[in-house]
Amino acid sequence: MRITDLLVPQSVLLNGPAINKTEAIHMLADLMEASGCLSDKDVYLADVLAREEAGSTGLGDGIATPHAKSKGVATAGLAAMVIPEGIDFDSIDGKPARLFFMIAAPEGEADAHIELLSRLAMMVIDPDFREALIHAKSVYDFLALIDAKEDDRFQPTAADAAAATEEAASDATNADDTTDAAGAVAGDAGTADTAATSPSSQASSSSQPAPSSDADKHYRVLAVTACPTGIAHTFMAAESLERTAKDMGISIKVEKNGSGGVKDPLTAEDIAHAECIIVAADKNVPMDRFKGKPLIQVRVAAGINEARRLLEEATSGKAAVYGGSKQDSTAADDTLLSAEDSVGRQIYKHLMNGVSHMLPFVIGGGILIALAFLFDTFNPADPSKFGSGTPLAAFFMKVGGASFSFMLPVLAGFIAMSIADRPGLAVGFVGGYLANAGGSGFLGALIAGFVAGYLIIGLRRLFSALPQSLEGIKPVLLYPVLGVLLMGIAITFVINPPVSALNNWLMDTLKHMDSTSRIMLGIIFGGMMAVDMGGPVNKAAYVLGTGFLATGEYGIMASVMAGGMVPPLAIALCTTFFGNRFTPAQRKSGITNYVMGLSFITEGAIPFAAADPIRVIPSCIVGSAVAGALSMAFSCTLRAPHGGIFVVPTIGNPLMYLVAIAIGSVVTCLLLAVLKKPLPQNER
Questions:
Q1: Looking at residue 164, what is its pLDDT?
Q2: Degrees (nearest 5) of the Cα angle 586, 588, 593?
Q3: Which residue blocks in 438-535 are alpha helix, DSSP H?
């Protein structure tokens, strides 16, 4: 399969009219839809925007590659757009983006498609090729250039080479940290002949710059690249590092952690003989194998834009040692803890790693427990057996309870693993179990997860002075024995007493709250769900609601889900009854929000919020807060942290719960109708 099998003429736009990032993404999504590869454009668009929230796909050097793996994609596809004058795309180098490739991949896509999409992402690293695409005279010239590049027949014109060289010179003038692509051009784009005879950048992802000499069969520098989706950034960073290493005469091997699995894995022999390892990743990758080696850890974007700087640092002999026996191992750990993320971002990443692994246990167990109550008959004479009074109810309760019992150990274990890799897992599990048994519950397990992770990091530093011959017993003996012991002491004598007392006070306060106070809680938690619709504030409300489930408080979770269902439902209602406020494309996509809202997928409203945040977001917050408040006022309860309308039969006071959601949705719908003015007739 060729790239032009996925990039068809109707999905390419030259001289695009977009003036900002949001417009560009929406136009690219329209082009993608025109190619016929999307089954649901709104779902795909929401996933693309969610990916942008995690980090801009503006890669620098005028390139942007918005992309997502999504349930809204029927078959893998590409869309392309050129905006010659460029627009602000939040690019890492702060420069306007001019060349856009949008990538769509279905969830569970075959490796062949992923590799094809990744190959295109690597091709645009070539500055001459990039300039040729930007200056293409027609769509068919644009596609012909891609075919030529794929066949290694691309011959840049003198104008293209000059434009690339001029861009590189401008970059060098404006900043000392010249981006890798520009640096590569400065070295080999001086003549068209040199550029034309360079190897194709889309060579197989398994190809690596060879070791520097026959006598030295080992790579001087190793690298690992990874991004959350594993489609574009992973392979572009690898390509950038490989190209720059070749220009600098450095042998390198790059392990790519893509969506199709690990490509070119680093072997123990590779690691043993390497001078330094570069980890350019926005997700967790196995790190234990690098203990004792000089290591540089950065975000994946740095691998694309700062490859030269990274390689210079890697070969300078000044890189800090990761978890090794040298005196500067402590400095290495400090660097890894901060990397390029803020402390808040680090905490959020570790917390989400625990929550994402915990949720299947909570959702599965919570729904089964709710079904146990649904299929049981309440006996006033023995209310304590409600939920297990019949054989079927008892079965659901047993299985659901078993799943639910793993909630806190899994949360703590995977938070610790995110911080300290695999040695933290067992220590975190034990901490989570003891937190549950000791009464500190969700909050105690959360604290235990972080304590366990940093406890293992502390043990690594403590044992860094041990002889190399004892390296093998650390992960199998020292870390688990001392880690579990110290975790047990910390959770039993330090964490559990105050946190369990706090839990008891909090639960007692909630039980004795008057209706006004509980309604205020509903307003807060419901409104938080609509602030950023899947972002940190939304996640904070959801995580707290889930945590309260473990303590037996089910009202807050009901308010959280009600607040999260309102934004997409309100958008759908408004596009239906006040359609003159929306474009035809928005009205069409509004229908999809009925399904997404009823399924508790708040992200369905993101495209509308991104297009008109000043009006949409406040309106959604008000409606979600109303729904959360009414849920509390009606004493609704929810034992399952997800499911939307499909778990309504298991909700306490289900009819009034639906009323609360409906009222909140109508409130937001009416606010939008008032705030958004009718569009001119020619835009409807």
A1: 52
A2: 85
A3: 441-462, 473, 479-490, 496-511, 515-528
